[in-house]
Structures are given as structure tokens and as C-alpha cells.
Amino acid sequence: MSKTKILLLVAFVAVFVAGITLGLFAGHRQPPRPGPPWLAAELELTQDQVEKMKEIWSKVVPSPHRPSDRGGRSAPASERDNAVREILTADQLDRFERINAEYEAKREQRQKELMAPFDEAMERTQQILTEEQLKRFENLQERMRDREHRRGGPRSRPDDGPQENERGEEQL
Prior knowledge:
Helix 3 runs antiparallel to helix 5 (90-128). The chain is 66% helix and 2% strand. It has helices spanning 3-26, 37-43, 47-57, 75-87, 90-128, 131-150, and strands spanning 163-164, 170-171. By secondary structure, the chain is an all-alpha fold.
């Protein structure tokens, strides 16, 4: 065997072993606890408030065992719908639009149902904060909305008001 082949074999084995080692260590991470610790520090929460926050948010924050359900329409679904619209007759298109309207109404209702625990947790959180903490909390929320907007728009919420659909038409 030539020196080059031996060197390549050793390099391959080293990379393989490094990958296995990294995989083993990555699998042993602790799951995150409900309620970000940075928020407690940012709002200067008391220990009692920290415990109440954990209790409030433990049922709302998605966990690895309870996947989040974000609803919404994906880009591929919109592309599919637009492609279907192009091949339908006028009567078929009317029926398709009615089906889509029913779907959107059900999706919006589901989104409201999914947001209800979050909204309740937000309200309960605000009730345990002092006046100064509440001001900081509202400031944090505003900063988070601004950051989300810069990343490509705010997340869809049931009470955000008018939205545009795939055709650019305003919806309530």
C-alpha cells in the first residue's frame, strides 16, 4: 500500500470516529426546561414569580414529546393550489374556491384554538408581574416582534387583523 492510500485511510477513520463521538455526545443533552431563564433575569423575577411562571408555561411550551402545531399554508400548498386553478373550468374553479374557503375557516378556527392556551398563559404571566416588570415584559415583546418582522414577517396570529391571501386579496 502506498503512503497516500494509508494517509487517506487514516484520515477517513479519524473523521468516522470523530463523527461517532460527536453523535454520542449530542444525544446526551438535557431537554430544555419550560420558561427561559434569561426572562427571569431580564424581568428581575422573584423566586416565587419564577415558580409561577414555570407552572403557567409548562403546559404551553412545546416539548420534544408534544410537537407544536403551527397551522398555516406552506409555499408548496399554495403553488399546488395555483396550478390546480389554472386547469379548472369556471364551474370547477367556483367549487374549488368554496372548498378552499371552508378549509381556511376551519384552519383559522383551529389556529384560534391552538393560540388560546398561549393567550391565557400570557394573561396569567402579566397578572403576576409588578408594574416595572410588566413594562419590561411589554418592551421585550415589542423587541421580539420587531426581530421577527425583520426575519421575514410576524408569525400569524388569529387577532392580527387583515391578511393577504395567495392572490394578494385582503382577508379578515
